[in-house]
């Protein structure tokens, strides 16, 4: 990070909060797979170097930092929204619910949230939504790493079940190879059937009611 990664946490502590959680999610853009959120409360003694927005890190470095975060964090919570839930509502609402779920899974519970992005989560807690927060807050960056590694591991497991799509390589994002696989094989159980790029490949016949509502 180019800025002091503890400034936002320090402001929260200065305001009297004790357990400040960074919250972030990954997986809004893919055509397949879940949205995954993480909430992380770090101790003030946390001194691991190299914590940053997960998108700026190599997979190997993310894995190493993920292990250190789990070893030292005061608490970590995970939230997951599967493709069916995304189709029933929309990607933003599903993402906000995963973040709320991740916070609810923290033990002990936080008293303040630092959230990546412009949206607050639907919880009665003190919170601050910060655009670009994963590059400004060590707690949010840690959450982004935990969420990213968790989701990547899930997509690698799905690759064993649906090897024709190449999920291990692109993690469900709309790469050229993924789009070509959709043209060849159609969609599978973990594709987001309300998304452009997937709904065009739905098989003929009756559509599940929640998909029909989203396509109308």
Structure keywords:
single chain; 216 residues; alpha/beta; Nucleotidyltransferase, domain 5; 5 strands; elongated; disordered C terminus
Description:
The chain has a single domain, classed as Nucleotidyltransferase, domain 5. It has 216 residues and is of the alpha/beta class. It has helices spanning 7-14, 59-72, 83-88, 91-104, 138-161, 167-170, 176-185, 209-215, and strands at residues 20-26, 35-41, 75-81, 112-116, 126-130. The chain starts with 6 loop residues before the first helix and ends with a helix. The chain has a 5-stranded mixed sheet. The protein has 8 helices and 5 strands, in the order αββαβααββαααα. Mean pLDDT is 92; it is low at 206-216. Helix content is 40%, strand content 14%. A hairpin with an 8-residue loop joins strand 1 (20-26) and strand 2 (35-41).
Strand order of the largest sheet: 3-2-1-4-5
Q: What count of helical segments does DSSP give?
A: 8
Rg, Å, rounded = 18 Å
Q: Based on Cα principal axes, name the global outline.
A: elongated
Order of helices and strands: HEEHEHHEEHHHH
CATH architecture, please? 2-Layer Sandwich
* CATH class division: Alpha Beta
Structural class: alpha/beta
Oligomer: single chain
Task: Provide the β-strand percentage band.
Answer: 5-15%
Instruction: Identify low-pLDDT runs.
Output: 206-216
Whole-number tally of structural domains = 1
**pLDDT averaged residue by residue:** 92
Work out the helicity level: 40-55%
- The biggest beta sheet, please? 5 strands, mixed
CATH fold topology: Nucleotidyltransferase, domain 5
């Amino acid at each position: 990070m180019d800025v002091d990664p503890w400034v936002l946490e320090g402001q929260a502590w200065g305001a009297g909060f004790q357990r400040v959680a960074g919250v972030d999610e990954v997986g809004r853009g893919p055509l397949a797979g879940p949205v995954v959120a993480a909430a992380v409360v770090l101790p003030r003694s946390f001194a691991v170097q190299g914590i940053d927005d997960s998108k700026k890190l190599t997979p190997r470095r993310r894995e190493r930092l993920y292990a250190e975060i789990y070893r030292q964090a005061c608490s970590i919570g995970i939230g997951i929204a599967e493709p069916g839930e995304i189709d029933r509502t929309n990607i933003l609402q599903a993402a906000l619910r995963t973040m709320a779920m991740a916070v609810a899974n923290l033990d002990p519970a936080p008293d303040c949230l630092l959230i990546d992005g412009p949206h607050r989560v639907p919880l009665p807690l003190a919170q601050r939504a910060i655009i670009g927060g994963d590059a400004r807050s060590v707690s949010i960056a840690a959450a982004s790493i935990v969420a990213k590694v968790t989701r990547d591991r899930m997509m690698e497991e799905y690759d064993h079940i649906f090897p024709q799509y190449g999920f291990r390589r692109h993690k469900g994002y709309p790469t050229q190879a993924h789009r070509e696989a959709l043209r060849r094989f159609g969609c599978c159980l973990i594709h987001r059937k309300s998304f452009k790029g997937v709904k065009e490949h739905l098989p003929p016949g009756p559509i599940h009611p929640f998909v029909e509502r989203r396509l109308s």
